Amino acid sequence: MTDIDTPVDDISEAPVAKPGKPIAWPLGLAGVALVIVGSFLSWSYDGQILNDLSINFYPNGLQILAIILALLSLVLLLVEKGPLVKLGSWLDATLGLRALGVGLVLYMVLALVAISVESDGLINVNPGGYVTLVGGLLIAVSAWMLPLHQLRDMSEARMPAWFDILSIAVLMAALLFTAAYALAQTEAWPLILCLVFVGAAATCLFRCGVMTFVSHAGQRHRKVLTLAAFAAAFLFPFTQNGDDTNMSIAGSVLVFSATAMGLNIVVGLAGLLDLGYIAFLGSGAYVAATLSTSAFATIDWKPPFLIVVLVGACVAATLGLIIGSPTLRVSGDYLAIVTLGFGEIFRFSMFNLDGNNGPNLTNGPNGIPGIPDLVLFGFDFGTDHTVAGVELTRNANYYFLLLILVGFVILTFSRLNNSRIGRGWVAIREDEKAAEAMGVNVFGLKLLAFAIGAFLAGMAGTVKAHQDGAVSPDQYIFLESAFLLAAIVLGGMGTIVGVLLGATILKVLPEKLRFFLEYRLLLFGLLLVLMMRFRPEGLVASRRRKLEFHEEDEALAVAVEEERLIAVEEAK
Amino acid sequence: MAAMLEVKDLEVAYGKILAVKKISFSVEQGQVVSLIGTNGAGKTTTLKTISGLLRPTGGEVWFQGERIDHVAAHDIVTRGLAHSPEGRRIFPRLSVEENLLLGAFSRRDPAGVRSDLKAAYDLFPILGERRKQPAGTFSGGEQQMLAMGRAMMSRPKLLMLDEPSMGLSPIMMKRIMTTVSELQRQGTTILLVEQNAQAALKRADYGYVLEVGKVVLSGTGRDLLVNDSVRKAYLGED
């Protein structure tokens, strides 16, 4: 995939080698040793917290995470000086080590805070915790004493194909296991520590250049990368061992992702601000509900589900065309206001079509409960299945279906992005008037973006209705539209990986961190403000978007064009 | 034979203000025709109306025997009428090649587009050398070349250029004007809007002088160049 970020700027801006202090390297090594030793010792006197950290020489998951960070540091230290020094001209050990050092210190501080908060104060911290903290500090200090390097361009690194593919596979496997481990945490503190671990490890891999290599490898073997990502996602339910709660979260993440990707076409590609997008998801869900065999369903026609999907998607697309055709002639703020209004109109219509005010279509505020599980080709989504000794629950069944849906949405997105239509959208986003003079059918293309986006959301809605088992108007409030937009902005407008990442973050955090739920608006708001200040292009920036925020960067611009040429080649 | 482009009693208004007041002119196939006039004479408005970016309040526009004053802008491009807008309006963040490809947006023959891309690079070698560079980093003259190259990418029968010499150095202006003649020789009909009357009329087969929305004078380029009132008003001579 093209849009994995490569922190080229970090590397190229590094000043030419300042000699480091000779003590730095042994200091780092001592830090690594301390972290590992400390993690084998007990961190806490109280065995009840953080999944029991109280036993010596029996590290639990959280301690193993600390050890992994230490081992990564060790590898980078050996790149700096030692048997792996050959890699030194490619990998930036210093920057990677800094990320790891800071991450470890943060990790340990939070762990100690967690221990003292959960039981009675710092008294409960055992020496192992302090030893590990000191180790982390040593690594951080040594990293800042190491010299910065001038590196070779990672895009020139050529490895045999099997190595490229292996690195992609390793990345995907690591993602899968981390996701499984993080989701297995039922309490808040361990999850937070997991996130710190992921943050530290990811930052390290990006900073030191490993991710740059993997992303280039991914570009060389696009199909492998896509396949590996899909395989990892497919294998995820098998790591859950019958845990239906996590699969339910995963399912809602996929619905949210599919919808966000649909909105990404409207916002990210065509550049139209839609604040009522959730209504299209809602219309799909309502179509599926009213056509289902629920006792509360209001329409007597009961077509097979595949027809329902098409009907739901077409109804949503028609709504998109209806709302789009008068409003897409205006742009910017006006469009945002009209779509905002449309979202509310949809919700109130669903609220009021209860038989008292017009026909009874939606059961009003009660919604339509009791939507039965899907049965597709004799496969009952409502029952558990055992595959290869692993129990796959109801939500796992929906997860697989949704995975196919997300795959379809992603495929649609990327095909459009690299097509003539996609080029037209870019032109509209850049300069509408000039695009019109070039013969771009501005209105038609905008309307098309609206309709396609609505179509995809409608599809997702039909599955969502069955997965949730009920629809009601209050599922489709404005806030949901806002969250969809936030996922796109946070992850990176116009990208695939970014939006998937944003959607996952925005959906998983409130589900797993209950205390977070109460403050989520505050925290997300804060997060978005910080993002706009420090990384306006989103977590994963499409290179082109990055260019919009960093126009003076000519090297970046050339890279963008090269990437486009590769994409065009592939399309042929 | 009917003219390639025929403008009859064209009237365009911004709100209540008439910017173009019943002007008529025509462009014959193979000609270079100039519209000259001062700021606010209605030149740009006229071009925008012909290319469908603005709608006239009255009058007719005929292109190759078809009436186009209410045809959508993108359809007009497909019919072979390209417009290189005032101020160039290139896409600064897109690369040269992407800009050119967008010029060919209305076409659906990839092979033809590719060969025209090569033709554009032949016409302006500098574009070929920097095809991957974002257009915003170009100088004014290079941007004008790109704008012309981009307009040519739709393979137009009639090319409308709106002030191609704006803000250019004399050398660059000469280069652009030579290209205009070159394009004419290759068979493209050109409607040239200019404030720089000298340069425009020198190459024009025919010229029209616009003043506050009206055609006040017309004639062959040579005649207009020696016309007293034109010399006074536009060529800075007494």
Automatic annotation (TrEMBL), chain A:
Cell membrane is among the record's keywords: yes
One CC-aspect GO term: plasma membrane
Topology in the lipid bilayer: Multi-pass membrane protein
Keywords from the named record: Cell membrane, Membrane, Transmembrane, Transmembrane helix
Localization terms from the record: Cell membrane
InterPro entries with a match to the protein in the record: ABC_transp_permease, LivM-like
TM region(s), chain numbering: 23-45, 57-79, 99-117, 129-149, 161-183, 189-212, 224-241, 247-270, 277-299, 305-322, 398-416, 437-461, 481-503, 515-534
Protein name: Branched-chain amino acid ABC transporter permease
A GO term for molecular function: branched-chain amino acid transmembrane transporter activity
From TrEMBL, chain B:
Keywords: Amino-acid transport, ATP-binding, Nucleotide-binding, Transport
Residue ranges annotated for the ABC transporter domain, each copy included: 5-237
Keyword Magnesium: no
GO molecular function terms attached to this record: ATP binding; ATP hydrolysis activity; branched-chain amino acid transmembrane transporter activity
UniProt cross-references to Pfam families, sorted A to Z: ABC_tran (PF00005)
Keyword ATP-binding annotated: yes
Biological process terms in GO annotation: L-amino acid transport
Gene3D superfamilies xref list: P-loop containing nucleotide triphosphate hydrolases (3.40.50.300)
Database matches in PANTHER family: BRANCHED-CHAIN AMINO ACID TRANSPORT SYSTEM,ATP-BINDING PROTEIN (PTHR43820:SF3), HIGH-AFFINITY BRANCHED-CHAIN AMINO ACID TRANSPORT ATP-BINDING PROTEIN LIVF (PTHR43820)
Family, as annotated: Belongs to the ABC transporter superfamily.
Protein name as catalogued: ABC transporter ATP-binding protein
Lineage: Bacteria, Bacillati, Actinomycetota, Actinomycetes, Propionibacteriales
